Amino acid sequence: MLSLAIAITINFSPLYSFNINYLNITEYVNMPKEQLLTNYRILLDYLNFPWVTQLNMPNFSSSASGLFHFFEVKKLFMLDYLILIVSGICVFWFSRYMKRTNQYQKLNRYFKWGMLIPLAILFALLISFDTLFVLFHQVFFNNDAWLFNPATDSIILALPAEFFMHSFILAFGLIEVFLLIGYFITKKESLLLVSE
């Protein structure tokens, strides 16, 4: 669920389009929305596709440190996709086994209690996003390359912290939805088993 939520979030371009308007990003970078979206698509193509090995955003400068950070982000994207594929296959066969052996209802309590976790994280994001954002980078990166200097890596002006907060909210909101769906599916299976 986590890897799926991440994959959906990082590819959900309408979120960035919304943030361009909501956060007035065009004013910060003095660039029209269409140009921002073009550069954002170039960045996403680099992060998403293994065969795209060079990042060259035409309207933004990039330092060696900034490019290295995006390379590290690219590796995390690839890891997420790998986890999504492997876990997706495992979940498919596991769910088939649970349904075939009439054990689907046993998963209900895990979905029920699991729904509290994304809600707690969403609450923490709203209370102290800056602290969690720094902690996230300290956990996943063993350097300071993520601390962009706008003078050398102007893309950071087009990717404000609020955009990342909205991305985190979307990701954990999706996880909550997935858990809710899982809860109702397993609840339905439990009722069907009782009625039999």
Question: Helicity level, as a percent range?
Answer: over 70%
The radius of gyration over CA amounts to 20 Å
SS-derived structural category: mainly alpha
Low-confidence parts, pLDDT < 50 over ≥5 residues? none
Write structural notes for this entry.
With 196 residues, the protein is mainly α. Helix content is 76%, strand content 0%. It contains nine helices and no strands. Helix 1 packs across helix 9 and helix 2 packs antiparallel against helix 4. The chain is elongated. The chain starts with a helix and ends with a helix.
Characteristics:
single chain; 196 residues; mainly alpha; elongated
Concise synopsis of the structure shown:
The chain is mainly α and 196 residues long.
List the helices and strands and how they pair.
Elements: H1 2-10, H2 13-22, H3 25-29, H4 33-48, H5 64-100, H6 108-114, H7 116-140, H8 155-158, H9 161-195
Helix pairs in contact: 1-5, 1-9, 2-4, 6-9, 7-9
